[in-house]
Amino acid sequence: MVRGVHGGVRIHQPDHRQAARTAALVLQARNVSLADVFEARTIIEPAAVRNVAQGRGRAAAARELRVLIAEQAAVIHDPDAFGKVNARFLGRLVSLADNQTLTILVEMLNEVVTRAVTAVSQVEDDGDSVATRRRGIRSQERLVTLIADGD
What we know:
By secondary structure, this protein is mainly α.
């Protein structure tokens, strides 16, 4: 709730992004390691991918994900922009699984990962960082092919 200009109260619809940011802050306050966050993602992602690959809309999902991959390739030399598009790829991949709980959890984890990846990339933005991002894109391309094939 936010206090209105004339002394009233305005009520806003809860924003899932704010909840994700708050949860990310809790993880940071508890000194949860980035490795721990990545491990959680490796547990969540395969379940989401399986749902997408087994769904009737997998061809459309693959097309949409390929657009996000192309966007990442276009900004591969810009760590901040790349981190944001990369997070959108994972977020959209999970949202295509059509499970709201998984989607919210991944938004929270993405908030942590995006901040960390952007910070590290800006400090160490050399050829190795770009090469790492390229490997990530190739992995996503293989994943999307498997989804399109229903595998």
